[in-house]
Amino acid sequence: MPRSRIIALTNQKGGVGKTTTVCALCGVFSSKNKKVLAIDLDPQGNLSFSLGASMEGLTIHDVITGRCSFDDAIQRTENCDVVASNILLSGSELELNSAGREFILKEKLEPLKYRYDYILLDTPPALSILTINAYVATDDLIVPMTPEILSLQGISQLTDTILAVKKYYNKALDVRGILFTRYNARYLLSKEVEDMADIVARQLSCKVLETKITHNIQVAEAPAHQMTLIRYAPSSRASKDYVKLAGELYPEAMQ
Ligand SMILES: Nc1ncnc2c1ncn2[C@@H]1O[C@H](COP(=O)(O)OP(=O)(O)O)[C@@H](O)[C@H]1O
Ligand SMILES: [Mg+2]
Fold first, then answer.
1. Which of 45, 47, 12 is nearest to 26 (CA)?
2. How many angstroms does the Cα of residue 108 sit away from the middle of ligand 2?
3. What is the CA(16)–ligand 2 centre distance, in A?
4. Tens of pLDDT along 108-151?
């Protein structure tokens, strides 16, 4: 098996579709019989819940603090393999205090790299040490945004952090693009939002992705059923958008 492709979703703003996108892409890749691991790096545990993983047993917190290995923490769900998180992870800012703390996740992932086709990382709404660990460990970064001016505020902090990690810790980090989520084609993107997104994309040497994810009620419903979108509502517009997104970024997965 070739080396896994590691993909992280990031934006220090909450509510922009990070967790939703990780969950949906896990579903799309799994539907193509790819071997998928989802890792929840947000203490809120939304991804763990959405994919039907238990938040009571061993979690990513135990893995990165050295209490157990990834193998011990991996749960097999009907959706894909999952490493869950829970609120204990919020203590990791203090616990990860040794030299090299930025590299812990990368190092722990090493033994898994030939066992999965895709490893997806969900990150917390903060530019914390957990987020940095995700940037260091990942191959690809996708930055979701909602089409409002507000969601673009604070973005310079995000771009500064990404560029610093790329410069000092992970030269191969590939920012794949900015992804508009919760998009409504009936309301064209305002000129201001489009211009701002282009500026951000230029700063990050990436592009605004062609695929935009439609705002669909089924997206919000799927987590309650602990099903990925493609299982819960395969014919919904948003599900088709996520299939298109996977085709735009990972055509090799969709053959
Ligand atoms: N395309 C969409 N259509 C409708 N609701 C969406 C869509 N994408 C995300 N949401 C909803 O928006 C909220 C925030 O999304 P979420 O993925 O949790 O954001 P984040 O992880 O960035 O905080 C959730 O309630 C989710 O169900
Ligand atoms: Mg989230």
1. 47
2. 22
3. 8
4. 999 999 999 999 999 999 999 999 999 999 999 999 999 887 77
